[in-house]
Amino acid sequence: MAGPATLLVSIAHQARALRTLQAAAAPHPLCTPPQPSHTQTFSTSRSGPARHSPGGAQELEEERKAPWKSPKEGEEGGDLSPPSPGEPRAERLARRETLRERALHSKMSRLAEATSQLVQVEQTLLLPLLQQHPLPLHPKDSIEFTNICSHMILQREGQQFERDLHEAHQCLKTIVEKLISSLAAFPSDSYIPVQSALRQILQNLLAT
User: Fold this and answer.
1) Is 60 among the domain residues?
2) Which tens digits make up the pLDDT trace of 132-182?
3) How far apart are CA 139 and CA 5, in angstroms?
4) What is the C-alpha separation between 74 and 38, in angstroms, rounded?
5) Domain total of the chain
6) Residue range of the domain that includes 17
7) CA distances, 154 to each of 14, 23, 158 (Å)
């Protein structure tokens, strides 16, 4: 059995993992928006020959190669339709890569949200109950979760990054499942709100 001190250790590691996930989900520092001068050049090049402005020609070429961009990103005439049979292979690969990156970013954001919810539930609901009824806890799982997230942020992309993201997802799911199992061993009305909140977090994780 473990009391509040053990839970606080787990919460500390989960909070560290949360900060790591939030940092990994942030835009890459090299991905800076274009400078105003580039934007002005691009606007001019669209109405005139692209050769008059190397910067404008490059951005115009990028626009031609990326028809799937949304108008919300500052481009006009965005095309979100499926690839046509005659679409060049390079453009199909670029489209697929963009969709994959968006899916990974979405999964990481949901993982960070679930981690934040877990920390909040543990701090506000579970911690007060442990002062009266100690529960079986597994802080090693939270340590493992932190280590996976720390390793993941060093990758930022590639297959290893995807594997780390999957492992982090599975590890957090295990933490929540073990907490639910521990609470089930102590049938009491006081644990109902905690169990309900944890089941909701687990449901969100299973949906990702």
Assistant:
1) no
2) 888 888 999 999 999 999 988 887 667 888 899 999 999 999 999 999 999
3) 10
4) 13
5) 1
6) 4-25+97-207
7) 18, 11, 11
Place of tokens 């942030």: 26
Query: Residues with Cβ < 8 Å from 90, sequence gap 6 or more?
Result: 65
Please name every residue paired with 2 in a beta bridge, in sequence order, or none if there are none. 135
Beta partners for residue 135, in sequence order: 2
Kindly state whether residue 73 falls inside one of the protein's structural domains: no
Q: What is the 3-state secondary structure (H, E, C) of the chain?
A: CECHHHHHHHHHHHHHHHHHHHHHHCCCCCCCCCCHHHHHHHHHHHHCCHHHCHHHHHHHHHHHHCCCCCHHHCCCCCCCCCCCCCCCHHHHHHHHHHHHHHHHHHHHHHHHHHHHHHHHHHHHHHHHHHCCCCECCCHHHHHHHHHHHHHHHCCCCHHHHHHHHHHHHHHHHHHHHHHHHHHHCCCCHHHHHHHHHHHHHHHHHHCC
Instruction: Dig out the tokens for 174 from the structure.
Output: 């295990």
Assess if residue 32 is contained within a domain: no
pLDDT digits over 106-139, tens only? 888 899 999 999 999 999 999 998 888 888 889 9
Which pTM does this prediction carry? 0.66
- Assigned domain for 51 exists: no
